[in-house]
Every structure is written in structure tokens, then in C-alpha cells.
TrEMBL record:
InterPro entries per the UniProt record, alphabetical: Acyl_CoA_acyltransferase, GNAT_dom
PROSITE patterns on file: GNAT
SUPFAM superfamilies (UniProt xref): Acyl-CoA N-acyltransferases (Nat)
Higher taxonomy: Bacteria, Pseudomonadati, Pseudomonadota, Alphaproteobacteria, Hyphomicrobiales
Species this protein is from: Methylobacterium hispanicum
Domain N-acetyltransferase: 13-179
Name this protein carries in UniProt: N-acetyltransferase domain-containing protein
Length: 196
């Protein structure tokens, strides 16, 4: 699997390679909704944005992550971040995660289209066998969003990680497999094209 920086464009969203130049705009975007304050997420606070970008780019250099800045439409403003992570070239398989959005674009077509673009590149461009999504068992909004995509719950990893506050995270693991991708793609396309 040859994975490297790529731009993925749609009507509602553009995913561009993450860059240190995006730090100020992403710090502004994360203030919209203050999602870093949710105890069950690991979203960077505004003052930690530059360090988080450096961390993600370091993981990209190590070959375990491909991070994106999420733009509100082609050429639009940065409104969040997402990544391919836990990349396993031998599968090949990967996880779509470490995603956050400004409040103003949550529950809009932006997330649906972003996931469709990421899944299409993973399955059609990279030949993945499966794509995972993971979230905290208590992150009900994220779980509903993942389920609306058509991903299936594989199981729950109990006491999977220790959070910054010392609590233990139970992680819900979802996936879409390559044979399921055509149905999931049709569903996501329908969601994007249906009248609102």
C-alpha cells in the first residue's frame, strides 16, 4: 500500500494535507463548540494546536498516520482535522480517526462527504480490506454518527486506554469491510443527494 499526502475534494468538504500553516485557523475552529472540554475526547485545546499538528506530522513521518485538515468546502476555511491512523500496510487496513469539527459544521453534509471521500480513497485507491472507526463507549454522538455511515460494531475493548484524567476508556470498534463498501457508498451517496 503506497500511502502518502493527498487532497480529497467534494462539494461540501476538502481534505488537504495537514500543515503547520493551519495552526491558527484550526485553533480558531476548535474554539467553536469547545469540544476539547468533553472529558471523553482527546481534541486539542487552542493553545495546544501547534503541538498536536507537530505530533501528527511526526507520526506521518514514521508511517503510522496520514493527517488531514478539513476545509469547509473546496478552498474554504479550516474547520477540523481527521486522519488515517493505525496504518497496517500488510493487510492492508487502517483506521479513520482523531477527527474533530467546529460546532458550526457538525451534523451537516460535511462529515458524511468527508467520510465518503476517505472510505473511497481507502478502498478504491489503497485497496484496503477493512477500515476501522474507534470511539469512547460514552461518546454517544460519535457512535451514532459512525453507525449512520453504515459501519458495524465489531466489539468493545474494555479498559483499552488510560485518559489524561486517569480514567479508563472502553473503546467501541466499528468497521466497514471491502465487500460492504459498495452498499455503504450507495448509502452515503443517497444521504448526500436526498432533498433536505
Amino acid at each position: 500500500m503506497a500511502i502518502g499526502p493527498v487532497t480529497l475534494s467534494g462539494r461540501h468538504v476538502e481534505l488537504v494535507p495537514l500543515s503547520p500553516a493551519h495552526a491558527d485557523a484550526l485553533a480558531e475552529a476548535v474554539r467553536d463548540g469547545e469540544v476539547w472540554r468533553l472529558w471523553y475526547t482527546a481534541v486539542p485545546a487552542p493553545e495546544r494546536m501547534a503541538a498536536e499538528i507537530d505530533r501528527r506530522l511526526g507520526l506521518q513521518a514514521a508511517g503510522s498516520m496520514l493527517p488531514f485538515t478539513v476545509l469547509d468546502g473546496p478552498g474554504g476555511r479550516p474547520v477540523g482535522m481527521t486522519t488515517y491512523m493505525n496504518i497496517e500496510p500488510a493487510g492492508p487496513r487502517l483506521e479513520i480517526g482523531s477527527t474533530w469539527y467546529a460546532a458550526r459544521v457538525q451534523r451537516t453534509p460535511l462529515n458524511t462527504e468527508a467520510k465518503r471521500l476517505l472510505l473511497a480513497h481507502a478502498f478504491d485507491g489503497l485497496g484496503c480490506l477493512a477500515v476501522e472507526f474507534r470511539t469512547h463507549v460514552m461518546n454517544h454522538a460519535s457512535r451514532r454518527a459512525i453507525e449512520r455511515l453504515g459501519a458495524r460494531l465489531d466489539g468493545i475493548l474494555r479498559h483499552h486506554q488510560r485518559l489524561a484524567d486517569g480514567s479508563l476508556r472502553d473503546t467501541c470498534v466499528y468497521s466497514v469491510t471491502a465487500p460492504e463498501w459498495p452498499t455503504v457508498r450507495a448509502h452515503l451517496t443517497w444521504q448526500l443527494e436526498r432533498p433536505r
